[in-house]
Amino acid sequence: MKKLIFLLIFGILLLTTTTTWGMEIGVYSKLALPEIKGLENVPLTIDLGDHAFSVEEWEKILESQKNVFLFPSQETIKNQEKFLESHKDRVIVSDFYQDAKSPYKPFAVFTEEYHTFMFLNFVQETIDIPWEELVKEIEAQNPDAILVCGNGKNLPLLKEKFASFSSVQFLDRDTVGENFSQALSLPEKAVILFFYSSRCPVCRKLKSEVTPSAFAPYLDRIKVIYLDYTITANYEELIRLEEFWKVEEKTSVEIFSAAGYVASEDEARINVQLDELIQKTLALDASKKKVIPTEGEARGLITGRFQGFTLWVLVGAGLLDGLNPCAFATIIFMVNLLLVLGHNRRRIVEVGTTYAVAVFVTYLLLGVGIFEVWRSLSVYQIISRVVYGVMAGILIVLAVLSLKDAFEYRKTGKDTEMTLGLPKGWRVKINQYLKESFTNRGFFLAAILSGFVISIVEAGCTGQVYLPTIMYIAREVQEYRLRALGYLLFYNAFFIVPLIVVFLSIFFGSQSKALVNFGRKNVFVSKIALAGLFVVLSILLFEGAIA
Q: How far, in Å, are 109, 113, 179, 206 from residue 49 at the CA level?
């Protein structure tokens, strides 16, 4: 008996946690009196027309409603043409799809609680429109639910044409009676908000490769919304959620629902934590599943966080974020190329300094919001991956050549014809070509361009706690703008310190007689070590390319 009771309770719980709930949509038609009964507290209403009252009374009804779509019948279109045209932004007549002469919209899209709902209204008995194009346009909108209004004559065709959409409901206007009003339910899912940075390779990997397997078993019951918090509005939402849930360990990826949050960059643990969060969310009462507390004042919270920053914190954040393998690889390649081509110390210092300054200026411009539109485009990630891949490929080639030199030296004992050292004849020809192709200004332009490109496509997981806050203040809060700009200058100054250290190490290492003599006496070890460095940098870049 106890086992039976347990099974019954378990079954009830299972049913309550797997069913979806819906957004209430109010629908009314054929009103004899200018009032609507039983449709309070609905976010959207649909007016099917065919009313018995005057235009003035109809106007009053529309004025009393916040969100309403007009779904006129064929009879209403004939009799109330002027009235409908005066409200054409609300009128939906899908029979007129792609009709350039039609003043009305072919469909309506409404977003509520991160869900997108689509509404269509067909009034003619026979419908002659480009169905394939309409279906493709609906698919591009990716609605969570669709409501299609038709009549007894066209509904069979509509059901056939919309058969490919799983979450579609049909409304037959011929079945409604006088003073019709009803609340329809459009299905919703539990919302999961996934906050990440589009500039962050770790974020992109967690988003695209690691966490999808955790979400997959629940996609019929949850909706995952990906929000890039480099965008101001999304950052404000993230701050509100962090404050509401009292998030202490802030990370580059934070995921929220109505039941709590997960803040983690641990690939091994994040899916376990996500599964627990999803289970808790689905177990909530239906009225709570759709309540994600993102309302409220965010600017004050962000300003308070900004006021708590210290210069020492920014020093640490800048130094840590400046460990940039792509920038390191570029300057290593550039300095070694100049050394191979026999340029003097002054030219190498000038070009290296120019590259470092270009990186500094680019990150400063990124910090004040320039290039944000560029980084929000999908092409940004494609180009970022290409640059990572190309740089990683070059380093692998250099590693192979360095290993070849090492074993060639061990075999012959000669280092005069080393691959990376380049034979003298090659150096002369390459130098001559570069002198003809590049003026002195050309080398500096190349350094500026490479510093700019590498910085704008590589901007990795930079200061996910500190930098977004400083950037927000610099853009949005006038009274703290100068202080925020000072912080950005300070942060970026220390951001390029690791890059300068790498540059100076290569430069002075190449000029040090002791190191040069050591390299000549230990050619095999030196070449193997150099190949190892190239391989490590290449692996880091390949990880960024595939993340």
A: 20, 28, 11, 50
Q: Is the dihedral of CA 133, 134, 135, 136 positive or negative?
A: positive
Judgement on whether residues 474 and 343 belong to the same structural domain of the protein: yes
3-state secondary structure 247-309: CCCCCCCEEEECCEEEECCCCCCHHHHHHHHHHHHHCCCHHHHCCCCCCCCCHHHHHHHHHCC
Residue 143 lies in a domain: yes
User: Rounded CA gap, 215 and 456, in Å?
Assistant: 31
Pair 287, 316 in one domain: no
Structural domain contains residue 14: no
Highest mean pLDDT among 208-217, 375-384, 506-515, 534-543 belongs to 208-217
Q: Is the pTM of this model over 0.85?
A: no
234 and 128 fall within a common domain: no
Cα 492 to Cα 142, 322, 454, 498, 535: the distances in Å are 41, 9, 15, 11, 28
Phi, psi dihedral angles at 125 (to 5 degrees): -75, -35
Range list of H helices, 341-418: 345-367, 372-376, 378-412
CATH number at residue 153: 3.60.21.10
Backbone torsion region of residue 369, taken as left when φ is above 0, otherwise alpha when ψ lies between -120 and 50, otherwise beta: left
Mean pLDDT value of segment 313-341: 65
Residues 194 and 180 both lie in one domain? no
Q: Based on the domain organization, do 248 and 369 belong to the same domain?
A: no
**Which of 141, 170, 186 finishes a domain?**
186
More confident call, 461 vs 496:
496
User: Do 163 and 310 sit in the same domain of this protein?
Assistant: no
Residues 489, 439: one domain? yes
Q: How many domains does the chain have?
A: 3
Range of 283's domain?
Answer: 190-296
Residue 155 has pLDDT above 90, yes or no: yes
Domain assignment present for 156: yes
DSSP H/E element including 449: helix 440-458
What's the pLDDT tens digit per position in 96-141?
Answer: 998 888 899 999 999 888 899 999 999 998 999 999 999 999 998 8
Strands of the sheet with 254-257, listed across from one edge: 222-228, 190-196, 254-257, 260-263
> Model confidence over 498-522: pLDDT tens digits?
778 877 776 775 554 444 454 455 5
Q: What digits encode the pLDDT tens for the residues 162-193?
A: 998 988 999 999 998 888 988 888 888 899 99
CATH of residue 254's domain is 3.40.30.10
395 inside domain: no
d(CA 370, CA 249): 29
Residues 449 and 494 placed together within one structural domain of the fold: yes
Please list, residue by residue across 191-220, b when 16 or more beta carbons sit within 10 angstroms of its beta carbon and e when fewer do.
Answer: bbbbbbbbbbbbbbbbbeebbeebbeebee
Three-state secondary structure call for residue 172? strand
Token pair listed for 528: 């193997």
pLDDT for position 526: 62
Q: Distance between terminal CA atoms of the chain?
A: 54
CB 256 within 8 A of CB 195: yes
Domain closes at, from 270, 296, 322: 296
